[in-house]
Amino acid sequence: MEADIAKMKEQKSPSAINILLRELFRDKLALVSLIFLILITAFVFGISIFLDKNEIVSVDLFAINTPPSDQFILGTDYGGRDVFGQLIIGTRNSLAIGILVTLISGVFGIAYGVISGYFGGQIDNVLMRVIDFFMVLPFLMIIIVFVSMTRDYSVVTFSLIMAAFSWMGIARLIRSKALQEKELDYAQASKTLGTSNFNIIFKQVLPNITSLIIVTMTLNLAANIGLESGLSFLGFGFPEDTPSLGTLLSYATNPQTLEFRWWIWAPAAILILLLMLAVRNVGEALRRAADARQRRG
Amino acid sequence: MWKFIVRRLLVTFPQIVFLSVLVFVMAQFMPGDALTGLIDPNISPEALEIQRERLGLNNPWYVQYVDWLGGLVQGDLGQSFRFKMDVTALISERVMNTILLSLVSLIFTYLIAIPLGIISGRYNDSPLDSAITGYSYLGFATPIFIFALVVLWVFGFMLGWFPTSGSVAPGLDAGSMEYYISKLYHALLPGLSIALISVVSTIQYLRSEIVDTKQKDFIITARAKGASENRVYNKHIFRNSLLPIAAFFGWEITSLISGTVFVERVFSYPGMGLLFLESVTGRDFSVVTALVLLFGIASILGALLSDIILSIVDPRIRIK
Amino acid sequence: MRKATISKALFIMMLMMFLVLAACSSGSDDADDSSSDEGNGESEDTGSDSEDTDGKVYDIADFSPIKEGEPMDGGNLNFGLVADSVFAGTLNYNFYSDAYDSEIIDWFDEGLLSVDDTFNYTQDGAATWEVNDEGNEFTFTIRDEVNWHDGEPVTAEDWEFAIEVLADPDYDGPRYGDVTSIVGAEEYHDGEADSIEGLEVIDDKTLKMTFKHATPSLLSGGIWGYALPKHIFEDIPVADMSSSDEVRVNPIGMGPFKVESITPGESVTFSKNEDYWKGEPNLDTVTLKVIAPETVTQALETGEVDMVDSFPTDQYPDVEESLTNVEFLGTLDRSYSYVGFKMGTWDKENGKVAMDLENSKVGDVELRRAMWYALDNNAVGERFYNGLRWNATTLMPSFYENYHDDSIETPTYDPDKANQILDDAGYEDVDGDGFRENPDGEELVLNYASMEGGDTAEPLTNYYIQSWEQIGIKVEKTDGRLLEFNDFYDRIGQQGNDDPDIDIYSAAWSVGTDVDPTGLWGPNVIYNFTRWEDEENTRLLEEGVSEEAMDLEYREDVYKEWQEYMVDQVPVFPTVYRAKLAPVNERVVNWDIRDEATELERYEVGVTQDEPVVAE
């Protein structure tokens, strides 16, 4: 595949991004998923500008646990708070976390992997030992300990904590690709021509592994949304007035909510499923696009 | 080979030391301590202060760390404050439960994943394959805790086929046949919930392996030589595709660890995952540190195991 | 690739499910909108949403705390211990610190002294007592028929031994504070004496205890009444006792049941102690197991457990009708929730409260009183807890029948009155932002610390903040969120490191058998998180435990005055009192859930048939 891409480069064939997009449009399911994702993201981020968060999490003693009605499209929870509004804000927060974690860990992982792979030798050796160390950490537990240590955390700090334990996969992957890439003729040629290391990495090596990066990051996104909801479920996620899909879902641990008040948790559960499926579909399509053998034409 | 293992073990040693410092320090910086939970007008604060002093909770963290390390060297992981017993004894009480649960779920995982993966790969693009792929998609998207909750609800309460909490029926003599059967019975449902979710990656992997191998030259040759379809599959393809799965075995341990945390919580199954969650909330620092360390060691060993298996099954990966 | 088609189908199916869901919710609009609109408009009409179980309001007075009947001979009882974690397994009164453990110990061990319904010691227990005229010297006589489970008699030495262990410097439990009132216990603890001076074994069955001071608290739970079998523990170093097998694996007691087997953290089986001194128990065996709060309803419904120690009251409205095989017993809980005002810090050096009204934002009693008027605790009780919590009045819950004073008039919800008080005190909205400034015209923002825990914590906190907003007081959550339990107590000062950023906090106390509130609100106690002190308060608290207060009437008067004074000064105000519910299967008889002594004791509990009744 690397050879393919390299060859295309020479022929000025479509860029990696173009190939990805083309493959995406060929796969109807992935396209639908992508549109769904874009719509949902635009919707929750757009509408939450107009929503007053304080209004949504404000407590109404006289509307506790009401089923869905005109006034509350998805009913209210045990604080008399509007579930639909929480769902929107929750989706926004979950997505924001998923995206932030993916971006932070992605950028860091890529930089790490490219440096390690490109320079090789002792640097690579040391950097890889560090990764080895991080890889074997029981990260779920460390995150839990970390969260209980940090007194107040926001979407950003929470994302940082999670990102600290999820950059290794991507770094490893990028490193091995970078190792292969730099052996290829074009990189070697540039080097003999006196191009700086920096330029070689960012102008030549990186673009050639873009597709790989996008694929890995998309799949990471799904995993991160899942991890966030899992932590909220265990009680180590966000406070209730920063709802996430996970917090809504964790209401289902109350047996009465689970049995009698589906409107509180079911929409969040379905939304998580849909989001993860959609992200996964897009990611799979991208993966196929990145792998010339599996492309659909 | 042995050299390799020894070297890998040597590398893991500093890893473990570093992990221990990390966890120990983080645990110290958590607000509150093991005595916070005892706030009660019937217990005098002075008595609590005496306990704090006695346990060394008022010392700076590095002093506590050195104390702890000193104990560790002698195989002493310290005392659990809440349980008033040695951490080693406490963990050994629980560790069997988690190992049993992990074994059950591993067995289920392979029992389910291998046939499904083979069917899916052999008859790829058939309706059966589509159904299996569909399942693995859903499985991928379902968070394990939701699934476990639903399973508990349906099979535990609605149908009443399985016990809904604990690891063994009360009052059985430890060591008797009934005791072990009851233990197994209690581990079945939680184990199955982990397995049904964790099979999906193995199924997908096996499927694409088989689809790939199908088109390889030696298979085509075998077919051309007139080997029966079943023989081709059982003898050549299956064996070839299974090897990488075996190599993943070690890594499964790592993913099992996070799986058990969720499932033990949902099923109130007293294993190490549940102990960990309780100890974090109760600020039982020595237990938290010991558990993270243990889980860390388990994943290190798992990774090592994978590497070893991989090097055995795949001679291309040479161990330097 | 066909694979895509089925996945696509799946995906579309999911989408449709989502749509159906949306349709469901809009479909039910028509059916429900009338009731929910009404429910929103009429605050008084609690019965309007009849199909909605959450509208129901219960009254603790409608519950009986006791279930009587004629038991059959023998039988097994399944007891559920509702706990969200395993029990610690320190199964001895002298060493336990976990509330779940004490529920287990109650089955197989008991104190030597029994109490009446006001928690004062009686002569009906395993030991009887005499007291000298000064009231500081007690002579106890253990009944002859009282034996340990292994047949050995319970002796005065066992009792002395227990107290010596508690006072030992190596002792690792939390109960040392319970014996410091005995003469010489502190000297023994500090290694200055080889024995405790105030303890004297007169003969096998007689023990004399001398206390430093005579106070009425001694008689209401102030004497350590739990013996430790010396013949078993003698050879174990004190530091190792709590982790020994004698505590964890084969615990021993003198109660109506014996421990048969223990599955650590999960379950315990008991068999009857035929030699029990009050008589042979009705039941043959008891099986106790831990039940998660999430699954307790199902366990009761299927008869998996006959009864539980306490039932999560918030689940009650949803299940009262489906649990047809169960009778719910109820009584007053020994706890109250309260809102406290921080008015100082803790002086670690001198071990006392360092009040600083000048620099406290809530140093003004008028502000505090207005904030009390702003809260509608009856609505909170009805709406959040379906009436199973209700407006609290004084700091001595009605649980203390003798001392609780109904007649004291306490602020109840009246926003107009609250506004009036603030206006009069000079709190005015100067800059027109909708919130009042303090009398000096400076902005007033109060920092409110509240704890996580349970479903209602967050909405309740928000509700309080909204209520204060209604009277123009700006309150914000500390850190903008609920605090985790450990964090919360660290910051309100469990170790004296008070967070200066906290102005108000809400918490709850579970009160002890002794009514004396010094341990919570005295000037020298670290648990007085308000850091408020006052001469009058100190005087009343001291009088409440003085020698004169040995006279019940005198003590009642002192505490009535104290309750009134606290209502006046509002360093803290109680918000709700609580009910405790305990469901029991229909086959269970002779069970009483009250803590105070009753006619029905544990050995009398029985069942009427072999199999538990199952819900229809």
Protein described:
The complex is a heterotrimer of chains A (297), B (320) and C (616). Chain A contains 15 helices and no strands. With 297 residues, chain A is an all-alpha fold. Chain A has a single domain, classed as Orthogonal Bundle (MetI-like fold). In chain A, helix 3 (28-50) crosses helix 5, helix 5 packs parallel to helix 8 (155-164) and helix 10 runs antiparallel to helix 11 (197-208). The longest helix of chain A has 37 residues, at 83-119. Chain A is elongated and about 75 Å long. Chain B has 320 residues and is mostly helical. Chain B has a single domain (86-318), classed as MetI-like fold (Orthogonal Bundle), CATH 1.10.3720. Chain B is globular and about 85 Å long. The model of chain C is unreliable at 1-11 and 13-53 (pLDDT under 50). Classes of the chains: A mainly alpha (297), B mainly alpha (320), C alpha+beta (616). Chains in contact: A-B, A-C, B-C. At the B-C interface, helix 2, strand 2, helix 5 and helix 10 of B face helix 1, strand 7, strand 8, strand 9 and helix 15 of C.
How would the blueprint of this fold be written?
The complex is a heterotrimer of chains A (297), B (320) and C (616).
Chain A: H1 2-11, H2 16-26, H3 28-50, H4 53-56, H5 83-119, H6 121-136, H7 139-149, H8 155-164, H9 168-183, H10 185-193, H11 197-208, H12 210-234, H13 245-250, H14 255-260, H15 262-290
Helix pairs in contact in A: 2-15, 3-5, 3-15, 5-6, 5-8, 5-9, 5-12, 6-9, 10-11, 12-15
Chain B: H1 2-28, H2 45-55, H3 61-73, E1 79-80, E2 85-86, H4 87-122, H5 127-141, H6 144-158, H7 177-214, H8 217-224, H9 229-266, H10 272-282, H11 285-313
Antiparallel strand pairs in B: 1-2
Helix pairs in contact in B: 1-11, 4-5, 4-7, 4-9, 5-7, 6-7, 6-9, 7-9, 9-10, 9-11, 10-11
Chain C: H1 3-41, E1 66-67, E2 76-82, H2 99-108, E3 127-131, E4 137-142, H3 156-167, H4 185-189, E5 199-203, E6 206-210, H5 216-219, H6 230-233, H7 238-241, H8 245-248, E7 257-263, E8 267-272, E9 285-291, H9 296-301, E10 307-308, H10 316-319, E11 326-341, E12 344-347, E13 352-355, H11 365-373, H12 377-385, E14 389-391, H13 415-425, E15 445-449, H14 457-470, E16 474-477, H15 485-492, E17 504-510, H16 518-521, H17 535-544, H18 552-569, E18 572-585, E19 588-589, E20 591-592, E21 606-607
Parallel strand pairs in C: 2-9, 2-10, 15-16, 15-17
Antiparallel strand pairs in C: 1-20, 3-4, 4-6, 5-6, 7-8, 8-9, 11-17, 11-18, 12-13, 14-18, 19-21
Helix pairs in contact in C: 11-13, 17-18
